[in-house]
C-alpha cells in the first residue's frame, strides 16, 4: 500500500506528539464607553426602587470556553479570535480574555 | 431660624463621620449545573461551524456595580443582597461577588 503525502492540516495535533493542556478561557464582552445600555439602566433603577444605594451599573456578557491547546498563549489567541469573529461586535463592544488551566 | 430635628435617613452618611470608600462589585450570575442553556449551545455550534475547536461553552451575566461603602465586606454584603433580590433567580442561578476598590 502506498502512503502518500498527508497535508499537515489533516494530522491531529496530538498525533504529532504535541502535549495538549486543558484550559478555560473566560471572554468578557462589554459595551464600549459611551454606548447606551438601557437594560443596565433599567436594572439600576429597579435596584434604586428596592432601596439599594449605588452609583452606577454596567452589564457584560461572559463566556467560559473549555478548550485544549498547546500553551496558554495559544488558548488566549484562539479565544480572542472567537471574540473577534462571533462573540463581540467590534463596533460597539470591547472584550477581555482571561486564561486558566482546568 | 429654627433648625429642628433631622431624621437620620436625611443625613448623608459622610456627614456622620463615616469614611466611605468607592468600590466596584462584580456580580457574576451563572446557570446552576444541569440547567439547560440553549443560547450557549447555539453559540458553541456556531463557533464549531466557523472551524473553532472547543470542548464546551457556558455563558454568564456580569454586573459591575459602583457603590460607596464603609468597608469591602459591607460592599460585598450589599452586592450579595442585590443579587438575591433582583440580579439572580435562586431557583436556576448561582452567583459570585468580587469586590475591588475603584
TrEMBL record, chains A, B:
UniProt keyword DNA-binding present: no
Q: What does this protein do?
A: Part of the phosphoribosylformylglycinamidine synthase complex involved in the purines biosynthetic pathway. Catalyzes the ATP-dependent conversion of formylglycinamide ribonucleotide (FGAR) and glutamine to yield formylglycinamidine ribonucleotide (FGAM) and glutamate. The FGAM synthase complex is composed of three subunits. PurQ produces an ammonia molecule by converting glutamine to glutamate. PurL transfers the ammonia molecule to FGAR to form FGAM in an ATP-dependent manner.
Known EC number(s)? Answer: 6.3.5.3
Where found, per UniProt? Cytoplasm
Please name the pathway: Purine metabolism; IMP biosynthesis via de novo pathway; 5-amino-1-(5-phospho-D-ribosyl)imidazole from N(2)-formyl-N(1)-(5-phospho-D-ribosyl)glycinamide: step 1/2
Q: NCBIfam families from the entry?
A: phosphoribosylformylglycinamidine synthase subunit PurS, PRK05974.1
One Pfam family name is: PurS
So what family is this one in? Belongs to the PurS family.
**Superkingdom field:** Archaea
Q: Which reaction does it catalyse?
A: N(2)-formyl-N(1)-(5-phospho-beta-D-ribosyl)glycinamide + L-glutamine + ATP + H2O = 2-formamido-N(1)-(5-O-phospho-beta-D-ribosyl)acetamidine + L-glutamate + ADP + phosphate + H(+)
Q: Which organism is it from?
A: Haladaptatus pallidirubidus
Q: SUPFAM superfamilies, per this entry?
A: PurS-like
> What keywords are annotated for this sequence in UniProt?
ATP-binding, Cytoplasm, Ligase, Nucleotide-binding, Purine biosynthesis
Instruction: Name the chain's protein.
Output: Phosphoribosylformylglycinamidine synthase subunit PurS
What's a GO cellular component annotated to this UniProt protein? cytoplasm
- What is the protein's major site of localization? cytoplasm
- Biological process annotations from GO: 'de novo' IMP biosynthetic process
Q: Which InterPro entries match?
A: PurS, PurS-like_sf
Q: What is the protein's quaternary organization?
A: Part of the FGAM synthase complex composed of 1 PurL, 1 PurQ and 2 PurS subunits.
The record's annotation in HAMAP family points to: PurS (MF_01926)
- Group of enzyme by EC: ligase
Which Gene Ontology terms cover its molecular function? ATP binding; phosphoribosylformylglycinamidine synthase activity
